[in-house]
Specification:
The complex is a heterodimer of chains A (616) and B (212).
Chain A: E1 2-7, H1 13-21, E2 38-44, E3 47-53, H2 65-76, E4 81-87, H3 91-102, E5 107-113, H4 115-120, E6 123-125, H5 127-134, E7 138-140, H6 152-158, E8 161-162, H7 171-183, H8 188-195, H9 202-219, H10 223-242, E9 243-245, H11 254-259, H12 261-304, H13 309-346, H14 348-362, H15 370-378, H16 380-385, H17 393-405, H18 409-422, H19 425-449, E10 458-460, H20 469-504, H21 506-522, H22 526-534, H23 541-550, H24 561-573, H25 578-615
Parallel strand pairs in A: 1-3, 1-4, 4-5, 5-7
Antiparallel strand pairs in A: 2-3, 5-8, 6-9
Chain B: H1 2-18, H2 26-33, H3 37-50, E1 53-55, E2 61-63, H4 65-88, H5 93-103, H6 109-120, E3 139-141, E4 150-156, H7 162-168, E5 175-182, E6 186-191, E7 194-199, H8 200-203, E8 206-210
Antiparallel strand pairs in B: 1-2, 3-8, 4-5, 4-8, 5-6, 6-7
Chain lengths: 616, 212
């Protein structure tokens, strides 16, 4: 048996999905966390149940990617039961989508989620009455507390029904649907879809277009508007029948503080800089201890054991790789993920988007663009994925350029591990400042020259919530696990291969080849440039490779301060890592990805050359 | 025909009087209204009998108080029409004057009163009849609204993202309230229980009416 979870953005579908399947898809408190379909299985009795988590949508009729994914899922009949998740706080708007789903006449089940928050807001929903009106089973849940979610799977097996609720459509729409169905053998829902311009058969499309035009002339409203109006009207009536409101429990209006210019904007700046500084300070402190620990208890004893040269080289490579990996993963990446998860779950990101709207307009985006930018500080990969939240190609292209420039936690590692450690905190901050200036200039230029249209922001504010510690930790752990499982082995293998190259003299040959470019243009020793190139695999590997190739973690003894600074800036700007390039390709296509890559390479080399001239 | 001829005479005499001439001779009057002196000589005694004007001993013609009143009314109609045609419809002053000369005799007092009000303040004209559902409302865009106001959406002119607004419930007839506004930056509206942040340019494309 197959079921699909459908609902508005940010109603808790993914949270319910996780509870049903025991899987861990990402759950956050901003609309649009789930961008693609996610599948998982669960068992009940002897039945194997396949659960699909779908991206959140406001309507089944739109043209956005998410809407098309859900529409094709619903109309294909891939699911035996459609589980519609409603937000009890915003019931009326959620019913609008439910009414659309009901028109497909598939067995359905209704979950009324967030009953806990509704109660706090003074909203009481009469479950029995709602169930009678919709002629569907309605299960009230509070997924965040895991309340009642265990009832969902049994109910899909026993009480899923086809709803007979009907929206009362304008008689012209009804007439058009009837006349379409007399000429073409269409289901009722297909005829409505045809009027909205979603027919597959060109003959039907043509006939429907003629009818739509006629209706538009009569009403001076588009068919979409009329149909949306009728559905809203129906939803409003149902909501009015089942909701009783009390005055909400009042508390301090935190939202007001966060979304007014004063003190909202200082808070926004403080949150961003504070996150960066905390990660920096906590990260450096932890890193120092981890590196020292491994040096003292593993590396030193190993070196003093006196193995044959080849074994020693390989052993040192392995230890350095583990040292670099652990020294980076937990102190920096994990701390960063914790903060980003806190921001995601608190609902603050949508407030930040509102505040930043005007500023981001100058860069050819709008407020929503701040979500990928902030996520980008953690890792560029999920940040690029979230660019899909932006609706036009123009905004996506601009955001792609800017996000790939945002220093992710791996680049923070380089800035902290090199610049802060060997030059000082102020110099490290100046790298961020430099990157910020480059982002601003890039944005200003792109907004001028990128073709395409720009729409403003239409963004639902997610409710402010105290982040659940468990979700924050699980999410950060899931993300860091990806690092440990994918990056660490890569790091170890690369490190051992590098060790072998060094041992066999291949590395020396390559360095000789790259030496002129490296020394003349960037003013860096050739092994540093080799390290930069390794940064393409994973960004922090530039630093790790540098350590391995330099043969010492005390880089201050082999490089000048100018060289360290140049190396850090180039590696921060240089071509995005392979994983980022792969998602970029998915979001903006191969051609634009190559342009972004070329731009960052040029930018890195140019900045490096410039710094070389200025600093030497 | 006859009456419009008489009205022209009264208007011409009113005009002459208003520039300070105490009386107008038959010949001058004929020139002013561009008619034959023979026609005038037939009508003037008739009008004198009705009490609109008097012929003085030296042959000069003057308006009686009753004539002044009628002449003034016609003059006003002429002015308002002329102003409407030239200022508001953009006709040349010459053709506006010609048009006004023809229409001033036919137009009703009520129409002229309303037209006069309209010219003074086009947006407030129309009086109670033009207002929707009998309430006093003014159409404005959501961007002009201020924080804390309750508004009814009257239309959404947004291209492209209009459907998204409809799906969120921002739709003609819905009552929304502005819960936050940063001028020039955008606003947050509460609609159907959820808070939606909108950029200024989106807000500018949503027409609303104040709800009282």
């Amino acid at each position: 048996m197959k079921i699909g979870l459908i609902g508005n953005p940010n109603v808790g579908k993914s949270l319910i999905f996780n509870q049903l399947t025991g899987l861990g898809v990402e759950v956050s408190n901003y609309p649009g966390t789930t961008i693609d379909r996610q599948g998982g299985n669960t068992c009940f009795g002897k039945e194997r149940i396949e659960v699909t988590d779908l991206p959140g949508i406001y309507s089944l009729d739109g043209d956005s990617d998410e809407e098309q994914i859900v529409r094709s899922f619903v109309s294909s009949g891939r699911a035996d039961v459609l589980v519609v998740v409603l937000d009890a706080v915003r019931l009326e708007r959620n019913l609008y989508l439910l009414l659309q789903v009901a028109e497909y006449r598939k067995p359905m089940l209704v979950i009324l989620n967030m009953t806990d928050e509704a109660e706090k807001a003074g909203i009481l929903v009469d479950i029995a009455k709602l169930s009678t009106i919709l002629r569907l089973e309605v299960i009230p849940t509070a997924a965040i507390q895991g309340k009642n979610t265990e009832r969902i799977i049994p109910a899909t097996l026993t009480s899923a029904r086809i709803s007979t609720v009907n929206v009362l459509y304008d008689h012209h729409i009804d007439a058009a649907v009837r006349s379409l169905r007399t000429i073409h053998p269409l289901e009722w829902i297909d005829a409505v879809q045809a009027l909205l311009g979603h027919a597959r058969d060109p003959d039907v499309t043509e006939a429907a277009a003629a009818l739509s035009e006629e209706i538009e002339r009569m009403h001076r409203m588009t068919v979409e508007q009329i149909i949306a109006g009728n559905r809203h009207h129906c939803a409003e009536h149902i909501a009015r029948d089942v909701i009783t409101t009390r005055s909400p429990r009042s508390g301090p209006d935190i939202d007001r503080l966060l979304t007014t210019r004063m003190p909202g904007i200082p808070i926004l700046v403080l949150v961003l800089i504070g996150t960066l500084l905390t990660v920096f300070i906590v990260g450096s402190w932890l890193e120092e201890r981890i590196v020292a620990f491994i040096n003292l208890f593993i590396l030193q004893p190993f070196l003093s054991a006196g193995f044959p040269p080849l074994a020693e080289q390989l052993g040192v490579s392995l230890i350095l790789a583990i040292q670099a990996g652990l020294g980076i993963a937990f102190p920096f990446i994990f701390t960063f993920y914790l903060f980003v998860a806190l921001l995601e779950d608190s609902g603050y990101l949508t407030r930040a988007a509102f505040l930043a709207d005007r500023t981001l307009h100058r860069f050819g985006m709008h407020g929503q663009g701040i979500i990928p930018m902030v996520l980008g500080f953690g890792c560029n990969v999920p940040a690029i994925m979230s660019i899909k939240l932006l609706r036009t190609k123009r905004e996506r292209i601009i955001a792609s350029f800017l996000v790939t420039l945002v220093p992710c936690s791996a680049r923070t590692v380089i800035i902290a591990g090199l610049v802060a450690a060997f030059i000082g905190l102020a110099a490290a901050m100046s790298v961020y400042f430099l990157v910020l200036v480059i982002i601003i200039i890039t944005g200003l230029i792109l907004s001028r020259f990128t073709p395409g249209e720009q729409y403003g922001m239409i963004l639902e504010m997610s409710p402010l919530r105290r982040p659940a510690l468990k979700n924050v930790l699980t999410k950060s752990w899931m993300r860091i696990r990806e690092f440990l499982l994918v990056a660490m082995p890569l790091l170890i293998v690369a490190s051992i291969i590098l060790g072998l190259f060094q041992y066999s003299g291949l590395m020396a040959a390559f360095e000789e080849f790259i030496e002129p470019f490296s020394v003349i243009i960037l003013g860096l020793p050739s092994y540093a440039t080799t390290a930069l190139i390794f940064g393409i695999l994973r960004r922090e590997m530039a630093l790790e490779t540098l350590v391995i190739l330099a043969g010492t973690a005390d880089l201050g003894s082999v490089l000048t301060m100018a060289q360290i600074y140049t190396f850090a800036v180039v590696s921060v700007l240089f071509i995005p890592c392979i994983a980022t390039l792969a998602v970029l390709k998915k979001v903006i296509g191969t051609k634009m990805t190559l342009v972004v890559a070329a731009y960052t390479v040029a930018l890195g080399i140019f900045a490096g050359a410039l710094l070389n001239i200025i600093l030497s | 025909m006859q009456s419009s001829f008489r009205e022209d005479i009264l208007e011409a005499l009113y005009r002459a009087g208003s520039v300070g001439r105490s009386g107008t001779g038959m010949r001058d009057l004929a020139l002013l209204i561009d008619r034959d002196i023979d026609d005038l000589e037939k009508v003037i005694p008739e009008m004198e009998r009705e009490g609109d004007l008097v012929t003085l001993a030296d042959g000069m013609i003057m308006l009686t108080p009753r004539g002044v009143e009628t002449g003034g009314k016609i003059m006003r109609k002429h002015r308002i029409l002329e102003c409407f045609f030239s200022e508001m419809l953009g006709m040349t002053p010459e053709s506006a004057a010609v048009e006004a000369c023809t229409l001033e005799h036919k137009v009703s007092d009520e129409a002229i009163d309303r037209l006069g009000r309209y010219i003074r303040a086009p947006e407030r004209a129309g009086g109670p009849r033009g207002m929707r559902r009998g309430k006093r409302r003014r159409v404005l865009t959501l961007e002009d609204a201020s924080e804390g106001e309750d508004l009814e959406v009257s239309s959404v002119r947004c291209r492209g993202s209009g459907t998204r607004l409809h799906d969120l419930g921002i739709f003609p007839g819905t009552v929304i309230s502005v819960i936050r506004k940063i001028p020039g930056n955008g606003l947050v509206v509460r609609v159907k229980g959820s808070d939606i942040a909108l950029s200024s340019e989106i807000a500018a494309s949503i027409l609303v009416e104040r709800v009282r």
